[in-house]
Design goal:
This protein is an all-beta fold and about 150 residues long. It has a single domain, classed as Jelly Rolls, CATH 2.60.120. It is built from no helices and 14 strands.
């Protein structure tokens, strides 16, 4: 479904984010991330990466993630990503008033096909533009599960 990058003939990790310099993410801004997969024997976990200030107004984020796998057509999935709860506050890691979340978006580790993967991210919240957003992106890593 989603992908990783090659480095010295191994695929350990891919992480890339798009910065929003004015700290607002317009629904018309759809960052796209593209990379190659060569290792098809490993299993991977895929995460949505999101960084915001403490002033972010919601405890979740609705986002459309469109994925194009090698030899496949585009598939879009809307996701409701939980960022906070009433007991613990923000669920991501924080420093001062900045919080970063790495929310796993694959239910189980997945196999990836060889070739080019592309993802496009779009926020689909009611607030337009979405305020207090610093970065959004994708992280893919080899699964730590046996």
């Amino acid at each position: 479904m989603i992908a990783a990058t090659a480095s010295c003939n191994t695929i350990d990790l891919y992480e890339k984010t798009k910065a929003f310099p004015t700290h607002e993410w317009k629904s018309s801004e759809k960052p796209t991330f593209t990379f190659q997969v060569t290792d098809t024997t490993s299993l991977y976990d895929v995460f949505f990466v999101f960084r915001h200030t403490d002033a972010y107004n919601f405890n979740n984020l609705w986002v459309n993630i469109t994925t194009i796998a090698p030899g496949d057509t585009a598939r879009t999935q809307p996701l409701d990503l939980k960022l906070a709860d009433n007991q613990n506050g923000w669920l991501g890691s924080g420093m001062d008033d900045i919080f970063e979340h790495r929310v796993k978006i694959t239910a189980t580790p997945i196999k990836l096909k060889q070739g080019k993967y592309s993802f496009t991210l779009q926020q689909i919240m009611r607030e337009e533009p979405l305020q207090h957003v610093m970065n959004a992106g994708i992280r893919v890593e080899k699964s730590k599960q046996p």
